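Quiz preparation item.
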């Protein structure tokens, strides 16, 4: 393949711009905020689940307290009714004895149920504290996640601005490079780790860093300026400049 020396030199400009775009892509993909956001998002998901579990436990405990208080109320009501019957003097001796026995049993039952109410109230207080704690932690995690996302977006915006600028510059350079040379460069970039063209600098290929032997340098010197040379070691397009050491 032949190409004007100026077009070959432009490949170095194009390669520099493509390398810059590759670097910007790497920066975008490796922003530290990505890992931070992933971790904070995972933490937030867990805290949300824990908060829901705490709220569910609180709701269940509230229902349990209502039930326990209702049980106490039922016993108090029945004991009051029995006491009222006894105080009325309208029951016989046998019924009176039975009522007195039941009132005593109800008093014991009331005491036991009130102990249950106290125990449930203690668990209710603990559940309320748990909900408050988990809600605060969840909200803090949400805020931290939002901050990390904001920092990522700001960093990405800066990268996007530079990507747009470099992309415009690349389009300008690529537009004047012959199609066949451009196709070869593009293919080599895909197969050679992003570098399709490399400068011959001080007798060394800057693509693979291999120094050419004397015989190879003689062949390069003998090549016409329009001839598109390839590095024998890495196959990249080899660009000759005034610093090639020929």
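Solution:
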């Amino acid at each position: 393949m032949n190409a004007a020396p100026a077009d070959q030199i432009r490949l170095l400009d194009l390669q520099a711009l493509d390398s810059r775009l590759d670097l910007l892509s790497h920066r975008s993909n490796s922003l530290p905020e990505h890992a931070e956001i992933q971790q904070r998002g995972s933490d937030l998901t867990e805290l949300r689940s824990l908060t829901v579990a705490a709220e569910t436990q609180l709701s269940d405990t509230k229902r349990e307290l209502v039930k326990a208080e209702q049980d106490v109320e039922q016993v108090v009501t029945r004991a009051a009714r029995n006491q009222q019957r006894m105080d009325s003097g309208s029951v016989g001796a046998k019924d009176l004895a039975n009522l007195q026995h039941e009132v005593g049993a109800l008093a014991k039952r009331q005491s036991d149920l009130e102990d249950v109410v106290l125990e449930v109230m203690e668990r209710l207080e603990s559940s309320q504290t748990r909900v408050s704690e988990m809600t605060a932690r969840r909200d803090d995690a949400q805020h931290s996640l939002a901050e990390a996302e904001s920092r990522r977006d700001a960093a990405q915006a800066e990268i996007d601005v530079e990507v747009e600028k470099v992309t415009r510059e690349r389009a300008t350079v690529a537009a004047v490079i012959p199609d066949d040379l451009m196709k070869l460069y593009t293919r080599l970039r895909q197969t050679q780790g992003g570098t399709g063209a490399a400068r011959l600098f001080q007798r060394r290929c800057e693509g693979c860093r291999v120094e050419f032997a004397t015989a190879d340098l003689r062949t390069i010197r003998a090549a016409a300026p329009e001839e598109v040379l390839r590095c024998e070691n890495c196959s990249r397009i080899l660009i000759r400049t005034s610093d090639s050491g020929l």
